[in-house]
């Protein structure tokens, strides 16, 4: 009897989401123009100068890794895609494997992996710019990844910095083009060896302007050969969106079984709906409510859940992606957690990567 109330509530949220998208896109375009003018050495009016003073973040005295504006780098998180966007051709589809969302950071010839909360989980050499040896001491790279412990592989979603080239303020379609070209230039990133201890793989992208490619992607099952890694869901990036720290309506998320209801596009029949699934908006609201309960539960306990594949076992550091338990070992090293900081002397690092995973 309350189904209509859910639908009305969902409609209001959707309208708010569309309005927030529009305003955020306008703000990001305005910021990009200001940055371009600044780089060209154009003098700003007093009004622009005052606006920049008020909006510019304050530089912190800590050694936390910061972007050009002095803001600490952090992950971009998605919102539920609650309704088919008005201009679907303005979006890019990205498959997301199951695993742990993280930032991979290189600097001073080393590579480190950080969780959503900014805790360091491991470090190792890599062939990413700045990630291995003395030649990379002046380079830095920051990638938005999903780490699959089962394959010991980082699946790359996005790039914040690549080889000292900051990409945060670039449009998503440009960031993706840049990433693909860099991975094509260095195929060795996919291979593990003494210089590249972890494999890095670029996730495919599908432009909604190409209807055939989109249909093929949704009909493929399993999405990856032998279902390794397993597909968790789909991310939807607005082509013109900058990289936003925190949750943004310009990146959407759907589980595969939701796609027909939200987008009106059929998916492979093997993407089965859960038994408790009746309406996508109801499911999203219930999912969020259960997740909020889990966060509260975990905030009062010092242990992490390591069971398998259900909403009741989502790890607190991986709320966007359901974890099948493969990453449980990463949470046995809570005493080794550190915030995202750079420049630490090597002698302060008391544990090696293998010990972190024991």
From TrEMBL:
Domain Snurportin-1 m3G cap-binding residue range list: 75-254
Keywords annotated in UniProt: Cytoplasm, Nucleus, RNA-binding, Transport
Listed GO CC annotations: cytoplasm; nucleus
A GO BP entry: snRNA import into nucleus
GO-annotated molecular function: RNA binding
Stretch list, region Disordered: 45-67
The keyword Nucleus is annotated on this UniProt entry: yes
Biased composition (Basic and acidic residues): 45-54
Keyword RNA-binding on entry: yes
Function according to Swiss-Prot or TrEMBL: Functions as an U snRNP-specific nuclear import adapter. Involved in the trimethylguanosine (m3G)-cap-dependent nuclear import of U snRNPs. Binds specifically to the terminal m3G-cap U snRNAs.
Protein name: Snurportin-1
CDD domains per UniProt: Snurportin-1_C
Organism expressing this protein natively: Bactrocera dorsalis
Membership in a protein family: Belongs to the snurportin family.
Subcellular location: Cytoplasm; Nucleus
UniProt main location, coarse: cytoplasm
InterPro entries to which the protein is assigned, alphabetical: Snurportin-1, Snurportin1_C
């Amino acid at each position: 009897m309350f189904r209509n109330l859910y639908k009305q509530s969902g409609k209001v949220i959707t309208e708010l989401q569309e309005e927030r998208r529009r305003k955020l896109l306008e703000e990001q375009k305005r910021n990009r123009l200001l940055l371009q003018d600044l780089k060209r050495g154009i003098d700003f009016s007093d009004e622009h100068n005052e606006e920049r003073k008020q909006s510019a973040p304050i530089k912190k005295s800590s050694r936390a890794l910061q972007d050009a504006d002095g803001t600490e780098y952090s992950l971009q998180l998605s919102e539920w895609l609650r309704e088919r966007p008005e201009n679907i051709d303005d979006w890019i589809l990205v498959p997301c494997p199951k695993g742990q969302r993280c930032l991979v950071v290189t600097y001073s010839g080393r590579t480190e992996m950080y969780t959503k909360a900014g805790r360091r989980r491991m470090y190792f050499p890599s062939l990413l710019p700045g990630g291995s040896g003395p030649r990379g001491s002046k380079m830095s790279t920051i990638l938005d990844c999903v780490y699959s412990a089962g394959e010991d592989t980082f699946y790359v979603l996005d790039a914040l910095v690549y080889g000292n080239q900051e990409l945060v303020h670039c449009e998503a379609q440009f960031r993706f083009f840049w990433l693909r070209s860099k991975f094509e230039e260095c195929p060795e990133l996919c291979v593990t060896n003494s210089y590249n201890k972890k494999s890095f793989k670029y996730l495919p992208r599908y432009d909604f302007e190409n209807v055939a490619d989109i249909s093929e992607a949704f009909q493929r099952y399993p999405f990856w050969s032998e279902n390794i890694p397993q597909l968790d869901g789909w991310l939807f990036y607005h082509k013109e969106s900058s990289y936003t720290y925190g949750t943004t309506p310009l990146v959407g998320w759907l589980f595969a079984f939701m796609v027909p209801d939200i987008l009106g596009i059929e998916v492979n029949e093997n993407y089965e709906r859960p038994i408790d699934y009746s309406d996508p908006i109801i499911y999203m609201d219930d999912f969020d409510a259960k997740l909020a309960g889990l966060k509260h539960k975990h905030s009062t306990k010092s242990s992490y859940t390591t069971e398998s594949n259900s909403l009741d076992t989502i790890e607190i550091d991986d709320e966007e992606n359901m974890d099948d338990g493969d990453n449980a070992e990463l949470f046995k090293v809570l005493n080794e957690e550190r915030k995202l900081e750079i420049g630490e002397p090597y002698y302060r690092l008391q544990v090696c990567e293998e010990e972190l995973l024991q």
